[in-house]
Recover the amino acids of this structure.
């Protein structure tokens, strides 16, 4: 075999000609660093390292100054649109830590002892003997603790550790009150008029043509008086609207196949459904007049409105809830009850 150059392994041609296994090439020749042989370079490096550590001290002092210098009250100081206190505290503390890190690296690279050592690898798994010794020590610890003989202590300890879980659970209260049954109800109720959601005007069946879709809302958003309560407005209205929004469509009555019990939920081919997709809650109103399909623009769930709002395509797992309709004494469309099932995404009601 050809002689190996120190610091270099055998070449492909070496192996091809000899077929010998690769030999340990050893360490490359040790070359002294400039700081090992030049006292001036050593001094320079020393000053450099000290400079980084000194810079870190200065930055810490600036951190303290920043803490007291900037106003963080109702009218906080800003710099480039950012809170001055936050900005300068972050910069000075980050810089101080960075300088310590750089100084330490430079110290070890340039000035600490440059001795190269070799450490042989060994299997990560402990020897059988070590494993047995460890297991024996573990068992001895268990025996010494008497945990097997003292169920009272063991059980109270487990209870104490379990009780610590409350620390994670109790603060969940800060998320707000439990929703209770509010997710099951909307503001629709028997006798409430159906209003156009743009004009706010109550709808009459004869104003809706076959094939037409109207976005609609309960009258209580426009007039609460007939229902013996205040008109719902403001934030409360926004919350209520997200659940009560409906679409009203008119089809040929002969095209509709109502499910058992829903035969009288429509008026002359006019049906009302929740506008909230049962997949993840997008508002829906892409209406195909010819097929009587309603498409959700978010993930293409498709609902057959002539067939009780059934899902015929897409990820939605539940039919669109239908609002039962009738006509009042003055000929306006009204709901005959609230929805009979929860509206919106179905995940929270499963099971
Ligand atoms: S939200 Fe309607 S399909 Fe996903």
């Amino acid at each position: 075999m050809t002689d190996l150059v120190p610091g270099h392994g055998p070449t492909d041609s070496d192996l091809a000609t000899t077929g010998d296994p690769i030999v340990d090439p050893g360490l490359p020749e040790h070359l002294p660093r400039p700081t090992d042989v030049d006292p001036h370079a050593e001094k320079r490096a020393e000053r450099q390292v000290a400079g980084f550590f000194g810079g870190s001290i200065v930055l810490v002092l600036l951190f303290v100054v920043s803490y007291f210098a900037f106003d963080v009250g109702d009218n906080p100081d800003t710099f480039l649109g950012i809170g001055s206190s936050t900005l300068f505290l972050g910069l000075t503390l980050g810089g101080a830590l960075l300088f310590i890190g750089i100084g330490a690296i430079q110290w070890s690279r340039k000035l600490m002892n440059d001795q190269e050592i070799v450490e042989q690898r060994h299997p990560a798994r402990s020897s059988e003997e070590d494993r047995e010794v460890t297991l024996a020590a573990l068992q001895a610890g268990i025996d010494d603790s008497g945990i097997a003989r003292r169920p009272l202590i063991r059980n109270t300890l487990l209870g104490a550790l379990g009780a610590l879980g409350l620390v994670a659970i109790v603060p969940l209260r800060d998320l707000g009150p439990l929703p209770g049954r509010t997710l099951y109800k909307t503001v629709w109720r028997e006798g409430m008029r159906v209003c156009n959601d743009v004009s706010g005007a109550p709808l009459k069946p004869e104003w809706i043509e076959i094939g037409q879709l109207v976005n609609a809302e309960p009258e209580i958003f426009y007039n609460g008086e007939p229902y013996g309560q205040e008109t719902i407005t403001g934030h409360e209205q926004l919350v209520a609207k997200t659940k009560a929004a409906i679409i009203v469509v008119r089809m040929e009555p002969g095209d509709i196949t109502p499910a058992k019990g829903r035969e009288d939920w429509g008026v002359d081919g006019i049906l009302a459904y929740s506008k909230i997709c049962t997949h993840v809650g997008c508002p829906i109103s892409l209406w195909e007049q010819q097929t009587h399909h309603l498409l959700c623009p978010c993930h293409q769930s498709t609902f057959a409105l002539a067939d009780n709002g059934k899902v015929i395509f897409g990820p939605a797992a539940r039919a669109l809830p239908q609002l039962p309709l009738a006509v009042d004494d003055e000929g306006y469309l009204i709901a005959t009850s609230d929805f009979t099932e929860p509206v919106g995404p179905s995940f929270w009601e499963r099971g």
Q: What stands out?
A: DSSP finds eight helices and 13 strands in the chain.
